[in-house]
Design brief:
The chain is an all-alpha fold. The chain is 79% helix and 0% strand. It has one domain. It is globular and about 60 Å long.
Amino acid sequence: MLSSKTKGYVDAVFATMFMGSLGIFVKFMSVSPSVITFFRLFLSAVFMFIFIMLRKRIHILKLKPTKRVVLSSIALTSSIIFYIIAIQKTSMSNAVFLLYLGPVFASLAAFVFLKESLKGIDIFSLSISILGILFMLKFNFHFQSSDAFGMICGILSGLSYGMIIFSNRMIEEHIELDVRSFYQFIIGSVLIMPAALNDYSFVMIKNNIVLLILMAFVCGFLGITLMFDAIKRLSAVEYGVLSYLEMFFATTFGVVIFSENMDMFKVAGGLLILVSGMLQVFKNKIERIFA
């Protein structure tokens, strides 16, 4: 039997791998981001409902979502919406970097409000992760007055991403994973529905329905559910550092599947992210060595 902490590490790695595969599906779909997001969340709720029914545990859904579950649901949807707007209003590099400040915000919030540990090795591994992201983006940033709105949305996407981690750390222990996942999927899909309906096209859905279902199962039901479980088992900084593996997997999939260019910046960035993850996984042993 794996310990809770070890299971958290395993969940985090698989969660980032599944969520990092989103680009594979998006590449083959001609669907707007809002519609993709709606199906990713709504169909995940359907899959979770079926999963609960198959286990004959439908009674657990009688438990109403708490304020913290609702808060996390709002953060989940806000992060996606603000990230989409940031991509549209500023450069991709700016948007990605600001989104991935989320784990930093979450780690600081958990340190201040939840009194979680934030040791030197945590700060070091988090810094290496951010440096890895910068390498993968080739430090390609530009800040102009025309980018102001996009930058603000990028910051809000990062804050919302951090709130996903932080709020899930606060969800009451008696709220089971199946329940918190189901309600976060449902609430999130309702919040994104107006934007999805505005971009909706029957032909668009019909032509991409198989990919939408597969994407929702892999990147939503599996990826996000495992993310919630990992956050529950790990501290904010532990999950935060490992969350950067999503960028590593997304880049790796792009190179392997779509023959995207692999340069020294991507190699260096990927290695830095892997090193930061290893530092977190083995930090207890490292601390004992240097104690």
